[in-house]
Amino acid sequence: MNLLIVDLPERQAAENLRLDDCLLGISDRYFILRFWVNDPAVILGKFQRPEYEINMGYLQENGIPFYHRNTGGGTVYHDAGTLNITFVKPAKALLPGSPKKKASRIVTEIIRQTAEKDDIAFQMSERNAIYFGDRKILGSAVSLTGGKFRFHASLLVNSDLKVLRNCLNWQPQYPPGDKKLVQSHRDPVINLHDIYPVTIDIIKENLIRKMKVLLNPGQIIFITDREQLDFYCE
Q1: If you write DSSP's letter for every residue of 31-79 in order, what string do you get?
Q2: pLDDT tens digits for 205-231?
Q3: Any idea what DSSP says for residue 231?
Q4: Cα–Cα dist 89/24, whole Å
Q5: I want to staple 13 with a disulfide (CB 3.0 to 4.6 A). Which of 38, 48, 76, 180 is the partner?
C-alpha cells in the first residue's frame, strides 16, 4: 500500500473537521497520515453536550467557537500550539508487525516513541492517552465508518494552557441515566515543550520517519494543498 501524508495550511476548525471526514472517502489503496492545526477552538466528542463540557461565558467573551466532531471521546481545546494527528486505513488492513494489537494501540505507541527523548519517558493509558507522570500530553478518539478505521489525536506541544483551563468545565456533571452521553475525564495537562524544547515541525518530521518504518509503503505522496486532496477524495 501507499502512504498519503496530508499537511494543509487550513486553520479554521470547522473546515478542518470537514476535511478529516473527507479522508474516509479516499481509496483503500492508501494509508493516510494527516497533520492539522486549528486557530483557538473547543472540539467536543460526538456524544457530548456543550452545556456540561465547556465554560460558555468564557468562550463567548473571547470569541472562541466550539464544534462537535464525528467521533467519540472527550472535549479538547485546540490552538496554534496543538498538533492534531489523524491516521486512516481500510478497516480490514492489518498494520505490519503486530497483528494481535489494536490499530489504535499501535499508532498511539508510535506517537509515544516520537515524543520520547533521551531518558525522558512517557506512559500510555488504556484509553490511548499519553502522559508524563500524571499529566496528559495527548488524548485520542477512534471511529469505524464506511469500512475505514480512523484514529485522531491532539498533542499538546506548546498550547496556551491557561486558556485551555478556562475554556473547559473541569467537573462536568451530566444528568444520570442517559447512557448515550459521554462525560469527559479531565486530567492535569502539560505541554511537551515544557518538558524539553521541541516544535510542531520536529514532531511531524520524527513521526513521519517512524510511520515509514512501520508501514514500509510502496510510495509516499505528500499533499500540501486542497486541489491535491480533492484529487484523491471521492
Answers
A1: EEEEEE--SSEEEE-TT--HHHHB-HHHHHHHT--EEE-SS-S--EEE-
A2: 999 999 999 999 999 999 999 999 988
A3: H
A4: 9
A5: 38
